[in-house]
Structure to design on (188 residues):
């Protein structure tokens, strides 16, 4: 089973220690999952964590510069393509994309969630990775959470700074997400 969040923090430790082979294996497994099913699965194939493929891959490449990295450009192109796919086809597509153009946690597997009560609310909580919390109210699937959208904004910024041929859709979403933060998430 892939654990996106755990893999991210493990890589933060492995990469500075020069554990390239182990780190590369973890990143390659995450990229393979995205290439095969469109995202990194959690408990169910239809659940994911926040999108971390590009934030994982770019620092990994930065540390590896100056080391023997075969097919450096090809590997980075693969990572970018996988990250774009997860972003476009999973997080910025229905059912995750809302009418206001921001994303939410939702798991519509309806296949017997074994870790929590099998309701849309609890399946969305399970996808968020958060423990059962009142912060989402009675229906987590209807919430447009700041944490998820902040991670998507981070992805959009990482993509913008690290990828040539910037997708206008990703850049437009980055600008809109930035402009919506005060009105959606800030109360004086």
């Amino acid at each position: 089973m892939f654990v996106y969040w755990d893999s991210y923090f493990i890589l933060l430790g492995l990469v500075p220690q020069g554990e390239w082979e182990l780190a590369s294996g973890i990143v390659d497994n995450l990229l393979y999952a995205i290439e095969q099913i469109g995202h990194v699965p959690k408990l169910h194939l239809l659940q994911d964590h926040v999108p971390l493929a590009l934030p994982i891959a770019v620092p990994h490449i930065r540390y590896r510069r100056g080391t023997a990295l075969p097919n450096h450009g090809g590997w980075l192109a693969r990572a970018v393509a996988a990250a774009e796919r997860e972003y476009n086809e999973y997080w910025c597509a229905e059912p995750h994309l809302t009418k206001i153009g921001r994303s939410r946690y939702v798991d519509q597997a309806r296949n017997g969630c074994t870790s929590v009560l099998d309701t849309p609310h609890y399946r969305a909580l399970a996808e968020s990775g958060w423990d059962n919390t009142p912060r989402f109210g009675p229906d987590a699937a209807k919430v447009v959470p700041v944490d998820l959208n902040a991670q998507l904004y981070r992805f959009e910024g990482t993509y913008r700074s690290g990828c040539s041929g910037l997708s206008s859709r990703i850049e437009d979403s980055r600008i809109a997400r930035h402009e919506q933060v005060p009105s959606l998430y800030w109360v004086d």
